[in-house]
Amino acid sequence: MKHDQHLVSLPWDDYELLDSGENTKLERFGGVIVGRPETQALWRKRRPELWETAHATFAFRDKKGAWDMKKPVPESWEISRGPARFLARLTGFKHTGVFPEQEPNWTWVRDRAASLGAPSVLNLFGYTGIASLVAAQAGAFVTHVDASKQSLDWAHENARLSNIPEDKIRWILDDALAFVKREARRGASYDGVILDPPVFGRGAKGEVWKIEEDFLALLEALKDIFSDTPGSFFLVNGYAAGYAPRSFAQAVESAFGEVGGECGELHIKESSSDRVIPAGIYIRFVR
Predict the structure, then answer these.
(1) Do 68 and 209 sit in the same domain of this protein?
(2) Is this structure's pTM higher than 0.85?
(3) Where are the alpha helices (DSSP H) in 118-225?
């Protein structure tokens, strides 16, 4: 596997990283500008005057986070990347439902799915589902799994916005590991697998997920349902604090053997400079 193959998300019409520094980042999602905490941004802000344009900023006070609203912001608003359309929202966890560092992976998933014609794709921990949208729009039949009904509903809204037929995406409210084990018993097979495991989480029935205990078990279960078809693709994204890309890559190879592929960091580039924010890690390979 090739290591240190960093992917850089560049600005697009509905998103740009305007500035960063001093443990914060300033971003534009469509017509809404937000400031959010960013522990990676150890440097000085380059364009402090831009921060006055923010509609809202997120800050932690007394161990709780809240948005400071400076201008009116809709409860949700529509943005897009290519034919995929989705809703952004200001959530209580500082997120907007859009992870722009994933844009290079959206392109990769689209191209891999298109090359297979009409593949069956599994998206675990699917959250708001942008990867599911791009796979479906490229011809895939997608099974989207998340343990949060709120996230599942949000993803379903995004699919409707993107005019994806109802029979293109199967929505599953379930624990990821429990679902994969059941699919293995059923003899299911998937030509594409996408997963974005959290450090800690709870399944739909209260199951506890701990990445240090369950990640390898999930990978080994996925081996039983991942197709041998040439061109089948596998993508793992990670935001687990303390884990390096090589750690995730070696876990993948311990389950699947030598797979080739690549791993590295996900970066977001500022729109007015060459600076980037490291924003996650990824591992991906193709049969």
Answers:
(1) no
(2) yes
(3) 130-137, 149-161, 176-186, 211-223
